[in-house]
Amino acid sequence: MDAETLPYALDLVAGSGVCLSPEKRAALRTSLLLVRRDYRFEQVRLWGRLQGIRGAYYIAEGLGPDRVGARSRLYSLNCVDWSLLPPPTEEMVAMTAALKGRFQGDPSYEYEPPEKKEDAERPYEEETGSMLKEEIRLVATVHQIDKAVGIVPRGAYVKSPLGPVHENRNFEGN
Fold first, then answer.
1. Where are the beta strands (DSSP E) in 93-146?
2. How many domains does one find in the chain?
3. From residue 162, how far is each of 64, 108, 132 by CA, in Å?
4. Structural domain includes residue 43
5. Residue 62: how many CB atoms within 10 A of its CB?
6. Of 48, 39, 41, 110, nearest to 76 (Cα)?
7. Given 29, 31, 146, 152, which residue has the most CB atoms within 10 angstroms?
8. φ, ψ of residue 131 in degrees (nearest 5)
9. Is the pTM here over 0.90, yes or no?
């Protein structure tokens, strides 16, 4: 959902039971517009919300002039303060593949790597693995969800002769 039309889009989604408090809605719209200005994005979209045990992660996506180019993702715990997520790597996805269960809602929470649990029978050996932060798991999860279900309708984007890809103005609805 684009930051410009966020209040209208949230009204449309509210019929399915997904809704935010008026305070969260106001904070979200205002803060996303500030994120667009501060990070110099051309467009900011609300990617979604991942619910944890102690809190929720609100994920936003910033787009530059090239719509198919790299996307910057940010997360917030309170819909006001936003932090950039590092770009996903295959190593991050591989490290978090064995983790199961719900998110805690705290980006500094550390998970014990699965191979470390297997080595628990050998208590006198030196620790070789490091703890895995929930922020890395968040990056990998958002990347996997986007990769699995992200689609673009044919004709929605047009490549300009100068190189960047833009939204097709003829594709817009009324």
1. 110-111, 132-133
2. 1
3. 15, 43, 42
4. yes
5. 22
6. 48
7. 31
8. -75, 150
9. no
